[in-house]
Amino acid sequence: MFLKIRLAGIQEKLNLILIFTITALFAGLILVYNFRAESDINNELSELGDFLVKNLSVSLSLPLFNFDEPSVQRIMDASMIERQIAVIRVKGDYDVLFDTSRDDDWNVIRDPGDISENYYMKSSDILKDNEKIGSVEVYLTAEFARKELDDSLVRMVGVFVSLGVLLFSVLFFSIRKRVIFP
Q1: Is the pLDDT of residue 7 over 60?
Q2: d(Cα 78, Cα 57) in Å, to the nearest integer?
Q3: Phi, psi for 5 (deg, rounded to 5)
């Protein structure tokens, strides 16, 4: 069953067109912004991952070669300052040598647990005198960037709704005063 809307006059017709136009325009802007921001998040995550694995592979080469466990742990803990890092793993030829990850409250822990979530992973070989002595894996999450994006979208919708109401009100009263009842 379709509802029939009877438009009494020019003011109702213009207001209806205005409401649909503003809604479509703002919805389109929000969609474009969202897709662009998602793409930027993925690019930034990739660049961050590249930087971190290169930095860690160079920083860990001498302590890992010398079997200096406290230095390896300090370097890994210092890297965990970046809140988008979920796990840093240092592997030997066949097993995990060092593992720093986060718990449910996002605190840094040393737990060789399984990686259960879908993280973005980057890895690099750790070299000493051009000989591979291990590898480092960094698992990153986009959770925080996506939360900021969601908050930004909510603020944007609020601004668009406010602007739409303001524009609708101004045009409603302008049309009424200048066109319908001059």
Answers
A1: no
A2: 14
A3: -105, 120
